[in-house]
Amino acid sequence: MKLKESFIMHNDGTESILISANASEFSGLVKGNKTFGCILECLATETTEEEIVLKLSEKYDADKETIAKDVQNTLVNLRKIGALDE
Amino acid sequence: MRKEFVIKLADKNIGVSCIFDSTYDFCRAYITENKADFNVIVSKDDIDFESMKSARENIAEGHRVICYPDEYLETLALYRKIAEKMPAYNTLLFHGSVIAVDGEGYLFTAKSGTGKSTHTRLWKELFKDRAVMVNDDKPLLKITDSGVFAYGTPWNGKHHLGNNISAPLKVICFLKRAENNSIAPVTKQAVYGELLQQCYRPAKIDSLKKTLVLLDLIAQKVGFYQLFCNQNIEAAEISYHKMKG
């Protein structure tokens, strides 16, 4: 899976933001913390849910189960707004 | 025969090629003899795109579909083409009413119909000659090292309130209707969704990326306030005294 090219990631120094260049596709915005930003970065290139969990586990000092749940929830939300190419 | 001329907006000279004479008249106060920095061409397809977009929005908002004349749609298509290119010149199209008092610009933004123009009209009533309307609907904001500047444009709302002037922008105020008046500073995080909604969102990826960077810069250089207001003159007194600092 991969983030669609029409979706733009932006970090303003405090938050990570995701918006779509195609307003008829998705006209809102999604805001999130560093973990959200990291998941988006992983999705900039073709990847899998397992790879994202692995990368986040290497980066953050949290138990793998919590990370896996965060990743799963984020992916569910990204699918809802049609942000993923799968 | 196509109409060709150059207009100067936010210090950029823009070559315009369009279909209708009315667009030339619409832009008259901004026409210059200068050489164009860049050109925009409006075609019949662009006009049809505006017509379809407007119909889609009418339907989405639950309103009946309004068929606008092509002359009006051409002005929309022209501004869209200009707004797509302006981020490259550190300039954004923003939806709001900008009034300058004692030379400093105050921008009021909100969804259409909330009362931005009503509020700036109260400012005009309160400050009389000290207040000058920069643009009542779609000003351009240019982000520079020395601050953000609001510029008048021909797209100045249904009452055509605005002037071919610029003013350093002191504040962006997010306006909401209320029975009682109150105003407080807000963080960018609290109003980011509205900020993004009220600025032109380019369709081209690079322009959109640049727009997001420019919005961050605006947040560093301009104060943000949230105003809850009614339509009494007291609303203007309260908002000015809080925002002038």
Task: Note down, in words, how this protein is organized.
The complex is a heterodimer of chains A (86) and B (245). Chain A has helices spanning 34-42, 49-59, 64-80, and strands spanning 2-3, 7-11, 16-20, 29-32, 84-85. Chain A has 86 residues and is an alpha+beta fold. In chain A, strands 2-3-4 form a 3-stranded antiparallel beta sheet, covered by helices on one side. Chain A has a two-stranded antiparallel ribbon with strand order 1-5. The mean pLDDT of chain A is 91. Chain B is α+β, with helices and mostly antiparallel strands. Chain B has helices spanning 21-26, 44-60, 70-85, 116-127, 188-198, 205-221, 233-243; strands spanning 3-9, 12-18, 31-32, 38-41, 91-93, 97-101, 104-109, 131-135, 140-144, 147-151, 166-177, 182-185, 223-229. In chain B, the strands form 2 sheets. In chain B, strands 5, 6, 7, 8, 9, 10, 11, 12 and 13 form a 9-stranded mixed beta sheet that branches. In chain B, a hairpin with a 2-residue loop joins strand 9 (140-144) and strand 10. In chain B, helix 2 (44-60) packs across helix 3 and helix 4 (116-127) crosses helix 7 (233-243). The radius of gyration of chain B is 18 Å and the shape is globular. The interface between A and B is medium-sized, with 17 and 17 residues.
